[in-house]
Amino acid sequence: xxxxxxxxxxxxxxxxxxxxxxxxxxxxxxxxxxxxxxxxxxxxxxxxxxxxxxxxxxxxxxxxxxxxxxxxxxxxxxxxxxxxxxxxxxxxxxxxxxxxxxxxxxxxxxxxxxxxxxxxxxxxxxxxxxxxxxxxxxxxxxxxxxxxxxxxxxxxxxxxxxxxxxxxxxxxxxxxxxxxxxxxxxxxxxxxxxxxxxxxxxxxxxxxxxxxxxxxxxxxxxxxxxxxxxxxxxxxxxxxxxxxxxxxxxxxxxxxxxxxxxxxxxxxxxxxxxxxxxxxxxxxxxxxxxxxxxxxxxxxxxxxxxxxxxxxxxxxxxxxxxxxxxxxxxxxxxxxxxxxxxxxxxxxxxxxxxxxxxxxxxxxxxxxxxxxxxxxxxxxxxxxxxxxxxxxxxxxxxxxxxxxxxxxxxxxxxxxxxxxxxxxxxxxxxxxxxxxxxxxxxxxxxxxxxxxxxxxxxxxxxxxxxxxxx
Amino acid sequence: xxxxxxxxxxxxxxxxxxxxxxxxxxxxxxxxxxxxxxxxxxxxxxxxxxxxxxxxxxxxxxxxxxxxxxxxxxxxxxxxxxxxxxxxxxxxxxxxxxxxxxxxxxxxxxxxxxxxxxxxxxxxxxxxxxxxxxxxxxxxxxxxxxxxxxxxxxxxxxxxxxxxxxxxxxxxxxxxxxxxxxxxxxxxxxxxxxxxxxxxxxxxxxxxxxxxxxxxxxxxx
Lengths: 470, 221
Hints:
The complex is a heterodimer of chains A (470) and B (221). Chain A has helices at residues 17-21, 29-34, 39-47, 50-60, 72-77, 101-108, 110-124, 138-153, 184-191, 220-232, 234-238, 271-277, 309-314, 333-347, 353-370, 378-389, 396-411, 413-422, 443-446; strands spanning 5-6, 12-13, 87-92, 128-133, 169-174, 215-219, 248-255, 261-266, 287-291, 323-328. Chain A is α/β, with parallel strands linked by helices and 470 residues long. In chain A, the strands form three sheets. Chain A has a four-stranded parallel beta sheet, sandwiched between helices. The longest helix of chain A has 18 residues, at 353-370. The radius of gyration of chain A is 23 Å and the shape is globular. Chain B has nine helices and four strands. In chain B, β3 and β4 form a beta hairpin. In chain B, α2 packs antiparallel against α3 (42-52), α3 crosses α4 and α6 packs parallel to α7 (145-156). Chain B is elongated and about 50 Å long. Chain B starts with 8 loop residues before the first helix and ends in a 27-residue tail after the last helix. The model of chain B is unreliable at 187-221 (pLDDT under 50). The interface between A and B is large, with 95 and 80 residues.
């Protein structure tokens, strides 16, 4: 099979290769077969032992692309010997704000994903795999459903796949709207028909996962990397990236930029280059803040950083899911903190008090600051709330809420203070009422009233967004 | 009154048969209830409990956790406006306000005639098209307030509406059934359910100014 394609200046397409070289039909079986699809999985099952498959993935240094960055081969090797059945579960419940890569990867190349699942299932000797597909992903689900049916018809799935004696069923399962189900143990509870709340670990899913059996949970992008990786080998994969963050990664780039979209680049590429791929900041706009790895990641204010797991950690933030949001000078950071914290408040599963109550109170305080009723002590109060959540809940959702809140307040404290001193938001937001949308928590309940506001140009046709920052 | 009655036996059996453990069928069966009732009714939850050998309370405990499973009667078209980071910074709140005015309901409510429900949604993984919204879980990109009103007008007039990916917007009950039977492997379900009408999902950089497709757009079969 072909290896990577040079996707134009700065891009290197491994996962997105077929999607970008055949944009009109990359998801069809005809194109996939013509393009060498499924040959790698067939060859792996025929010629490699499961142990060698695990070793190759370990050797490649591939790290999970869902957010945590855990080495994939190592994760597989935790499966206890002699305990059957085992399961592979695909985390296709993408929902980290800013992230839209898995959606596109599955929509554009569902067969690559299925081939990756087959390789993972072979490595882990699992005869059943479940795709937990986000409920809101209509086109992706249709294409996966069709691809699965086609793969069964061709003998790529079912009994004795590719003519081997290895059986594999893939079951498509739709979620029903809950961000927390992207957390792997919550996902398992949801897949079992319960509320999607995280489980206490240990035991880890590799030991006791789905239905109490050994289970490997991998992200869509991770699995979609496997066909090219197994076809070309660990050294090929390691030609890109850094020693500890090898390979390429798909970044979802959005915000106040000219060309939002998914871009696949070698890990370790500079954030400045990624911004250039995204077409740069929109006309006349100055960069103000960057979310480098999804809403959970603390903010950056400079593009002078390499996009890999270690460099971002050293910069006090994280690579996360690879969602990069660029914000310009028109962005009110109180509002940014409020939107972000509202998200975590809404998606907190309610299991742990620090997360459930802390995010709720933080929203209340942020609302009053944004609406001109903030108090001098509110900034310290927000930091105190963040400290009260961080490290004190079951799963990383609470931590993420705390990190995001803390970084907004610490990096832009003067802006928060200006809201309090002025008694109003210094930014103009016409018709952009924030409080309680859709949750029955209106202005009355919050005990504050809206500020008078003037217009902000949101016409997409206009390049002349003045970026007025009041 | 039975919601999941014998006429639906093949769907019910097909859904339950997907899983090694029947309880895993809870979410798809609840979507099946929603495809009949328009929401997850008490009668429907009782049926799901009977099928899975659970109590109604256990089924309610699961159903109440998920935002796509509606606890109250819903409109024929559910409009979900993303309220998250990128969309808010690019004008989503104005779109939501405009829709509240046009429909005469607050986010979270349904119009009196039962045609439309409006909600503020969390990140829909469509930030490349911000501000974005979904209508019955089909995507629309770079939606201006004017676009949003045009979409509602089309649907209100009974016209067919295509998403940014070229898929026809279904009714709420139709999409609930599609979700319920996704992945069901019956002789006709496989290819039929997996049938994809969508052509391109345009990348933002190759399709600047992409608008919600309202009518007369190309539709690949």
